[in-house]
Every structure is written in C-alpha cells, then in structure tokens.
C-alpha cells in the first residue's frame, strides 16, 4: 500500500536555499534509481524561513525502509545533515480506508 512521508527539515540560519538546491539535486540524482520511490515535492514554511518540508510518495513502507537502510550505509544524506540545525523529523502516513 502506498505511503506518504512528511519530512520537516530545520536548516541552519541562512542555509535554506543551499538545502533546497541540495534536496533537488539528490532527488534528480538518486530518485529515479530508488525502487518504490514515486516522487516528492518540497515546500517552504511561510512563517519560518529556516524550515523546509518535503512530502514524498513511496509504493510501500518496505520500499522506504530499504532506501533508508541503503542511504545510512552509503552516507547519501551526510551532506544534507550538515546543513541542519536539528535532526529531521519524518512522519509516515497512509490514506485511511
């Protein structure tokens, strides 16, 4: 069953545009090769210039878990983590049926 992942990213002050570009580059480079990744969209938080939200769609929880395990093992997200002021927060949801 498809899932949606809502990721809140609190960036270091003044680094929002750098983080946005990095996220876009990562999605372009790694997204198409990620099994089960359906796409994502990034959003700005209007009253907090140091926070970005990414909403990603995955075919299943298992596909996302496999991706996160691979990303942890390869350090894929290390450049992103360096720009964060706090650990990212991810909420995984699915449509009520």
Could you walk me through the main structural features you see in this protein, from its secondary elements to its overall organization?
The protein is of the alpha+beta class and 97 residues long. It has one domain: Alpha-Beta Plaits, CATH 3.30.70.100. Helix content is 34%, strand content 34%. It is built from three helices and four strands. The protein has helices at residues 16-30, 61-74, 78-81, and strands at 3-10, 37-45, 48-58, 89-93. The chain has a four-stranded antiparallel sheet with strand order 2-3-1-4. A hairpin with a 2-residue loop joins β2 and β3 (48-58). The protein is globular. The relative contact order is 0.32.
Please give the share of residues in helix.
25-40%
Tally of separate helices: 3
* Total number of beta strands: 4
Q: Percent of residues in beta strands?
A: 25-35%
The total domain count is: 1
Radius of gyration: 13 Å
Shape: globular
Mean pLDDT: 93
Query: End-to-end span in angstroms?
Result: 11 Å
- Secondary structure class reads alpha+beta
Which sheet architecture does the biggest sheet show? 4 strands, antiparallel
Can you tell me the CATH topology?
Answer: Alpha-Beta Plaits
Spatial sequence of strands, sheet with the most strands: 2-3-1-4
Output the helix-strand order: EHEEHHE
Give the CATH level 1 class: Alpha Beta
- CATH architecture classification: 2-Layer Sandwich
